[in-house]
Specification:
It is built from 38 helices and no strands. It is an all-alpha fold. It has a domain of about 90 residues: Serine Threonine Protein Phosphatase 5, Tetratricopeptide repeat, CATH 1.25.40.10. Helix 12 runs antiparallel to helix 13. The longest helix is centred in the middle third of the chain and has 20 residues. Keywords: Coiled coil, Repeat, TPR repeat. Pfam families: TPR_16 (PF13432), TPR_19 (PF14559). This is TTC37 protein.
Length: about 675
């Protein structure tokens, strides 16, 4: 076949392809290849025809042969790209990307429009594969090409915005290089915006700041972006809110942070981050109740802030709201999800605080939960304070051997750690080894004198050690006073101060004040509430007694606060108000239906009210519950006599006289 015939055969093949006669085209090409086996165009035409005949493997082989022959010729690369782009081609995305890369190289010095089209296709391909770094680098090349061609500022602005759009999902799994390219895109988009200040520019700035806040290492850039936005948009609270949340999350309370909180609240008094910031300020100033109030309010508006939940738990812990503190720790952990980087620190802090709080609740279930929380702390085994907490949890759960083992190990490995000596003290105290407990708590206080709990336990140790140490002003009393001074929310310290002033010093007035304070701090402390009421009565101060009882009964759920209902019922009984006495004594019995004395008092109240039948039932119930209550049996007989049930009355009187021969009221009856 002559050169002329080869050209004619190739022309026939091209015409056949144009007429969609692909098999015919293949014949012509094969004839050419018999003569010239390295004919580039023949291989390209075979690729084209085979692709149309749904013979992808043959097409791919033909194009690759052509490329082998002429690696820098466009036709075969274009054909291969078209083949890989067909919907029936799977698992070729990597190969297609390589083809696009080569096409970019070939178009670069020539057809700029085609270069841009291929570039767009390559970016889409990388985006589908979530290869964000390749997306960013390729799109930047496109922008550079447009800049070299002298593109308008508005077109470049749209291209930078498109780059932001393409990379917006990449922040979840961010490698540093992609992140930097995304932030650069934001900066270029902001600098190329047409209307400044303007709505689009403002929204872009918000997105930029939100994006920056996801990069822990971009603190300086975040602060600068927020300040720059505040200059441009002075009435917008958004940059200040982001800055406030950044400071909250950083865990540092600098002057800069405090200034940020107060500026935000001046601009918007209802701003969640601003109120949270104020709450943290209160916490650092030891204004714990205000801190709880502000943090709770702020979190109602901005609830996905793990650091704020942690601070709320810390404030609740300080005022001994242990169950609420556990709930706040759980909220912090939920908001953190599966953390990494700085968030891991918050997770460890929240788990440790949760465990500390559960240990304070001091029951076996809470101890079990505390142990589980401590197990989740990363690198917990290397932290001796966490080990001491685990020891306390074991002690609360009744696992004495494990607690002892941890205590002994800590005292050997960390002899200067206050928590190690305190754990030893708690163990001795639980075993009533008061002399050893005293030594341990004194060692703990020597190393950490500002811990109220250590002074409280040393005071309790002296209280139970002996009458001598209980009465010694320099022992129990001094420690309870120190504990109360260091922690003004420690109700149990005030309760024991009340015990000291009442039982040892005989100072009823001061004792009453301590019990009242203890009860105000912990309304579930019946011992302190009862003592405050009883001492108020003894001191002739019925107003104080009643105000305590009214407050408790006013808040009590049905079936709760028996002691308060009983005390107030007895007061009404003594002061001739039988109807009120009946209502209160019934409420007391709802809390404890088996209290025979309460039934007896209720019978008395009904009797005083003139409700004889109901009084009779109450006295009978009292004597059923406690057959030794002679007074109730006598009252029942007297009521049977009043109601004309003489035979029953006589039988009941005789029953009393069998037990108590000389019981005068029964003889009279």
């Amino acid at each position: 076949m002559s050169n002329k015939e080869v050209k004619a055969a190739l022309k026939s093949a091209r015409d056949a392809i144009r007429n969609k006669e692909y098999k015919e085209a293949l014949k012509h090409c094969k004839a050419v290849l018999k003569q010239e086996k390295n004919n580039y165009n023949a291989w390209v035409f075979i690729g084209l025809a085979a692709a149309e005949l749904e013979q992808p493997d043959q097409a791919k082989g033909a194009y690759k042969k052509a490329i082998e022959l002429e690696p820098n010729q466009l036709l075969a690369w274009q054909g291969l790209a078209n083949l890989y782009e067909k919907p029936n081609q799977t698992d070729v995305k990597g190969d297609l990307a390589d083809v696009y890369q080569k096409l970019l190289e070939l178009y670069e010095s020539g057809d700029k429009q085609k270069w841009c089209d291929v570039c767009n296709k390559l970016v889409d391909l990388y985006h589908q594969e979530k290869k964000y770094l390749e997306v960013a680098e390729t799109w930047q090349k496109l922008i550079r090409m447009k800049e070299e061609e002298g593109a308008e500022k508005a077109e470049l602005h749209q291209l930078w915005k498109k780059m932001i759009q393409l990379l917006k999902d990449s922040t979840r799994n961010q490698d540093n290089k992609t992140g930097q390219l995304l932030l650069t895109a934001f900066e270029h988009a902001l600098n190329s915006a047409d209307v400044v200040p303007g709505e689009d520019h403002q929204n872009l700035y918000k997105d930029f700041i939100q994006c920056l806040s996801k990069f822990p290492h971009e603190v300086a850039r975040l602060e600068k972006a927020c300040h720059d936005m505040m200059v441009l948009y002075p009435t917008m609270s958004y940059p200040l809110e982001v800055l406030c949340l950044h400071f909250v999350h950083s865990g540092t309370l600098s002057e800069k942070a405090l200034d940020c909180f107060s500026r935000l609240l001046e601009m918007d008094a209802s701003s969640g981050p601003g109120i949270i910031g104020f709450g943290i300020k209160c916490l650092k100033e030891k204004k714990y109740k205000e801190a709880v109030k502000s943090l709770t309010e702020g979190l109602q508006k901005t609830n996905q802030c793990p650091a704020a939940w942690y601070y709320l738990a810390e404030a609740q812990m300080k005022i001994h709201e242990y169950r609420n503190a556990v709930l706040s720790c759980n909220q912090a952990l939920e908001a953190l999800g599966t953390p990494e980087g700085p968030n891991l620190r918050w997770k460890n802090l929240a788990l440790q605080l949760k465990a500390e709080t559960l240990i304070k609740i001091a029951d076996a279930d809470a101890a079990e939960e505390a142990i589980k929380a401590l197990e989740q702390i990363v690198d917990a085994s290397s932290d001796p304070v966490v080990s001491a907490l685990r020891g306390q949890a074991y002690l609360n759960k009744g696992l004495m051997d494990q607690a002892l083992k941890i205590s002994q190990e800590l005292l050997l490995s960390h002899p200067d750690l206050a928590e190690a000596h305190a754990l030893e003290g708690f163990i001795h105290y639980s075993q009533k080894n008061y002399e050893q407990a005293e030594k341990s708590f004194l060692s703990a206080i020597e190393k950490k004198a500002e811990t109220a709990e250590y002074h409280q336990y040393l005071g309790l140790t002296y209280w139970f050690m002996s009458d001598e140490t209980k009465k010694d002003k320099g022992k129990a009393l001094t420690q309870f006073l120190k504990a109360a001074k260091l922690d003004s929310y420690l109700g149990s310290a005030f309760c024991y101060l009340g015990n000291y002033y009442r039982d040892i010093a005989g100072d009823k007035s001061r004792a009453r004040g301590c019990y009242k304070k203890a009860f105000e701090l912990d309304e579930t402390d019946e011992e302190s509430g009862t003592a405050a009421v009883n001492l108020s009565v003894e001191l002739g101060d019925m107003d104080t007694a009643l105000s305590i009882l009214n407050e408790v009964t006013g808040k009590a759920r049905p079936g709760a606060a028996k002691w308060a209902w009983l005390h107030r019922g007895l007061y009404y009984l003594r002061t001739g108000q039988p109807s009120q006495a009946v209502a209160d004594l019934q409420a007391a019995l709802r809390a404890d239906p088996k209290d025979s004395n309460c039934w007896e008092s209720l019978g008395e109240a009904y009797l005083n009210r003139g409700s004889y039948s109901t009084a009779l039932k109450s006295f009978r119930k009292a004597s059923e519950l406690n057959p030794g209550l002679v007074y109730s049996i006598y009252r029942a007989a007297a009521l049977e006599q009043i109601l004309g049930k003489y035979e029953n009355a006589i039988a009941t009187y005789q029953e009393i006289l069998k037990k108590t021969e000389n019981y005068v009221p029964a003889l009279k009856g």
